[in-house]
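In the previous lecture we treated proteins in isolation. Real proteins rarely work alone, and many bind small molecules. This record shows how such a complex is specified: first the sequence, then the SMILES for adenosine-5'-triphosphate.
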Amino acid sequence: MTHPYLAVGDTTVAQDTLLLVSDLVLRFGGVTAVDGLNMRVHPDEIISVIGPNGAGKTSAFNCISGFYRPNSGDIRFLGQSIIRRSPSRITQMGMARTFQNLRLFKEMSILDNVKTGAHSRMRQHWFDAFLHTPAFGKSERKCEEDSRFWLDFVGFRGDVDLYVTQLPYGEQRRVEIARALNTQPKVLLLDEPAAGLNHSEKRQLIDLIRRIRDLGISIILIEHDMGLVMDISERIIVLNYGKEIADGTPEQIRNDPLVIEAYLGASEEDK
Ligand SMILES: Nc1ncnc2c1ncn2[C@@H]1O[C@H](COP(=O)(O)OP(=O)(O)OP(=O)(O)O)[C@@H](O)[C@H]1O
Ligand SMILES: [Mg+2]
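The predicted 3D structure, ligand included, written as tokens:
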């Protein structure tokens, strides 16, 4: 099977900065969920965002991927400001994400769920779809081929025609990552991908994240599993009450007194 990622025409990630978040602020009423976040993501990087529950990690992701509009600050992706762009437009530009609570289409098969990733980037004319023209048939075949490729890539070995809800939770997480990859991203945001996975599934996830990065896709990971974060991250950003309190290598973060106080020193049930 050909590698669909290599088919991407646009390889304009030569600049050193892929994503630049500046002074990002997001408020919900009296709560400042994100309080002046700055973040720079380079090509081919694995970054983790950590912090206690309610620190603002998911809120930051929701701003970056266009689901929430920040109160102030800027987000530049591939050199362009994206704070006024819709989630689907941002996906088309090359940013994909998964959700803390899975958001798969329950009434659809595994294969069809992954196909929606490709559809989000394809430009089809309604009359091609309506009349089932040869162009439509060709792009549908390519879409199915890509979808099967990504399911294989994430390690899914089951029956792709089952409803997605027939799968165990860990397998559903894989399908969601396959769907995100099928949008042909340059950066992939993963919100707690290890939540609910067993030990061997976590090992497979670490391997998968590395293989995704080896394709030239940057990864931003929100994760509570410290073993996984320390193992895989090149850089870690720590949030607490919406503010960034540290940014460094796993070694620097492990030894940062502010981090130990805010997060690593917290009791297990606080994490
Ligand atoms: N839609 C919303 N409406 C109101 N408040 C919200 C909303 N989403 C998040 N918040 C609040 O914003 C703050 C940050 O929440 P967020 O979900 O971003 O934290 P998090 O770091 O992802 O936490 P967790 O580790 O539990 O997922 C919290 O105080 C939360 O209650
Ligand atoms: Mg969250």
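Summary for your notes: The pocket of magnesium ion (ligand 2) is lined by residues 57-58, 100 (CB under 6 Å). The chain has a mean pLDDT of 88.
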